Amino acid sequence: MEQRVLLCDTTLRDGEQAPGVSFNGPEKEMIARALADAGIDELEVGVPAMGSVEAKKISQLVALNLPVRLITWNRVVQADLLASYRTGVEGVAISLPTSEQQIKHKLRKDRGWLLEQMGQCVSEAKKEVGYIVLGLEDASRADLDFLQEIIVEAEKLGVDRIRFADTLGVMEPLNVFFNLQDLARSSKIPLEFHAHNDLGMATANSLAAVQAGFKAVSVTVGGLGERAGNSALEEVAVALKYSLKQEVKLDLKRLNAIALMVSSAAGRVVPRAKPIIGADVFTHTSSIHIDGIQKDFANYQTFPPESVGRKHSTSFGKQTKFKNVVWLLKSRGMAHDQETVNQLLNKTLDKIDQLDRPLEEEEILGIVLSS
């Protein structure tokens, strides 16, 4: 049986790197509990090296004894790792720049130094924690032969998982699928894909990585994260189940509630058309669509909204027809003779023209009650 893809959530780390976002202790606990209860595979809960306040929040999460692995993010620096060990987390992610651009122009070092530093940090971490993720920062711009060299060294060191990061979000799905298959096949260590959404392809790239053989995907709730954000948990999870037909441990019915919680804590409004969690994504306005779903929801729905904690709804626009009004009245147990329907339809179309926008079901029912 094919191994299930791991969903590794980094809302409390990379998500919190979104401009203007900062979670306090209770908010971190609330989000962590909700994700753990929903069945997430792993939580990356922060960066202890940021200081004592952050480290304390992480220690408090560890003390909850949630049924999920907690890891922290660290540079390939011993001081960062020491701060992580003190929090009591089960695992650490050790991130090292892998592109020539970042090795030379950010670290101002060379490949030899990087491999030596990696070896020292991983060897020490093996003594302190039970799980190690090696993060390959800017891997999408790195030399593939050098990445292979790092993977071979990581295997010798006993690393548990390797994270391939498309740090600038510059990859596209075909490139991910065709160029990374050999990497996935040759690695004895499970690979994780960490996508950024700078060009709007984070979810697509994550799915392409899974199809290429990657065993884990980094996600954040709502796609929250640095710059344009990361792969959205809800999009990846639902697409894994309904597009790739893969087993998903996560309870998808909890996605909407979790998204609303994170949106409130982050002070970020969910766009109306945001896949899975947006206000409008299960609402039909076109009379052709409304007619279609009246006959069979599968005509215009890939999966039932109830499966992700949502409900189906309709709104009525300029294309509203007689039978759309009949359906609404009938669904509410109201009279729907021809004269009543014609009057309501005319009033509805007049109101739509006056407001220059579609009307929600409750607005139309308000017209009925005021007549």
From TrEMBL:
PROSITE patterns: AIPM_HOMOCIT_SYNTH_1, AIPM_HOMOCIT_SYNTH_2, PYR_CT. It comes from the Bacteria. One of its GO terms (molecular function) is acyltransferase activity, acyl groups converted into alkyl on transfer. One of its GO terms (biological process) is carboxylic acid metabolic process. Residues 5-256 form the Pyruvate carboxyltransferase domain. CDD domains: DRE_TIM_NifV (cd07939). SUPFAM superfamilies: Aldolase. Keywords: Transferase. Belongs to the alpha-IPM synthase/homocitrate synthase family. PANTHER family: HOMOCITRATE SYNTHASE (PTHR42880), ISOPROPYLMALATE_HOMOCITRATE_CITRAMALATE SYNTHASE FAMILY PROTEIN (PTHR42880:SF1). This is Isopropylmalate/homocitrate/citramalate synthase. It comes from Desulfosporosinus meridiei (strain ATCC BAA-275 / DSM 13257 / KCTC 12902 / NCIMB 13706 / S10).
